[in-house]
Amino acid sequence: MSKTIHSFDGKSRAKKSPEGLQHSKTYINGFDKLCPEGIPVGNAVLIEGGPGSGKTILCLTLLKEACKRGKKVLYMSFEEREERLKIHLKNFGANPDEYEKKGLLYVKRFNALDIARSVEALLSEAKKELLIEVQPILIPTEFKPDIVIMDSLTSISSAFSGDPSRFRIYMEQLFRYLEKHEITSFLIREVSSPTHIGTNFVEKAEAVSFLADGIVALYSIYYSHGIRKRGFEVVKMRGAEIDRKIVECNIEKGKGLVVKNNSLKGNYILT
Ligand SMILES: Nc1ncnc2c1ncn2[C@@H]1O[C@H](COP(=O)(O)OP(=O)(O)O)[C@@H](O)[C@H]1O
Ligand SMILES: [Mg+2]
Questions:
Q1: Which atom of ligand 1 lies at the shortest distance from residue 54's CA?
Q2: Which of 79, 127, 140, 200 has its CA 20 to 30 A from that of 103?
């Protein structure tokens, strides 16, 4: 087995020079309140939550706020088609056509199986040690983004059926590339239950948790009086102080994902 699979322990990611850390706000009000300094530029942030918890909509809202401020965003979709994503964006008050015209936005749908096949092909060549140095497969060379969104790692992971170590190799390659180019990334991960709230559910994508600099969790909150709401938490953010509380959030027409300021009250469970 290739040495590169095991030699990377994630520690090199913690060595970023503290004096050189630049932070960037998300301009999602409630998100910024929980992470007041902003997200360190170049951080890889996992967006975790169950199906329908709002992961895609959170990322589209992040995209809108970034493009509005002249940042370049690459949205790599392995699930929804480009057209649908643009319709969502318009519903949430964004202007994807204008961002594209200005060269600020590149939305592209990929087939996760293509990645799996290409990694397969590369690994079957002799130069396994070089793999980690090359441009991660499917990151377009012609567009230099400030922010990359991948929707979702879970889709990519499932394309690597049968061989989790190949998925890990791809993830290590991807994280190194993003770090080297100081690209802030939001990487969606669909989980039945966010990893830190105690579950013995183990899946192939587990390896990405320790590679990531940040984790944002989206919850379904079930109150004892029978009401369901959406919840939001910044679980971890390397290089920035965070306010560790779970707050409510909503999906609102014309806005996208709106994060509230209030802590949860009463009896509830998180799912
Ligand atoms: N325009 C909208 N207004 C209100 N809620 C919406 C709107 N569009 C989608 N939703 C809600 O958002 C949920 C899907 O969010 P999405 O971000 O796609 O979930 P996922 O976490 O699976 O990516 C839907 O189940 C729906 O309830
Ligand atoms: Mg989604």
A1: 17
A2: 79
